[in-house]
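Hi support team,

I've been running sequence recovery on a batch of backbones for a student project. Most finish fine, but this one hangs at about 90% for roughly twenty minutes before it completes. I'm not sure whether the input is malformed or the queue is just slow. I've pasted the structure tokens below so you can try to reproduce it. Let me know if you need the job ID as well.

Thanks,
M.K.
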């Protein structure tokens, strides 16, 4: 897993048959090897991995073609919150800026959310854990970062959509 720091865009990298498969930005990309650490996809985006010789690559860089944000993705180790930790995020979060309320809950071991004003109609957002207190939904191009007070209690969240186009919209946790 790699993450671009400016947009917070996650990229999941896995090995395929003689290629790398990268999921992110709501699309799958197949990259063919050009050199041991350099790969190209059908859109002529070239990526390169940097890291210690013989070790695990700590950076994925876009070196040619369309770039996302800085074009440099740092390797991250996704967190695996327990069911109890996930349930601590459940609740209603209100944005005065968007005049919207998102209701977070845990369903089938996943953090999900719905816009309360729409009731339970529509497909819920499904968030995967990324970093501590940060979750992403690739299909909806959304990231939420939960904000904690000094005592470690969740006070609200910042929502980023379109992976950086709409950034840090504040939501307060409803009492």
């Amino acid at each position: 897993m790699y993450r671009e720091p400016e947009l917070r865009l996650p990229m999941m990298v896995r090995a395929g048959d003689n290629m790398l498969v990268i999921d992110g930005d709501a699309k799958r990309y197949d990259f063919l090897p050009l050199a041991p650490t350099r790969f190209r996809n059908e859109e002529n985006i070239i990526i390169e991995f940097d890291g210690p010789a013989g070790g695990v690559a700590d950076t994925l860089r876009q070196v040619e073609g369309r770039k996302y944000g800085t074009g440099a993705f740092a390797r991250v180790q996704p967190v695996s919150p327990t069911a109890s930790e996930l349930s601590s995020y459940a609740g209603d979060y209100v944005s005065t800026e968007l005049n919207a309320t998102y209701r977070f809950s845990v369903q089938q071991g996943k953090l999900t959310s719905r816009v309360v004003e729409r009731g339970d109609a529509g497909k819920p957002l499904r968030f995967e854990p990324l970093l501590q207190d940060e979750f992403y939904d690739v299909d909806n191009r959304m990231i939420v970062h939960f904000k904690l007070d000094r005592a470690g209690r969740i006070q609200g969240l910042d929502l980023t959509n379109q992976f950086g186009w709409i950034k840090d919209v504040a939501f307060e946790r409803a009492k």
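--
Follow-up from support: It reproduced on our side and the slowdown came from queue contention, not your input. The chain is about 5% helix and 55% strand. No action needed from you.
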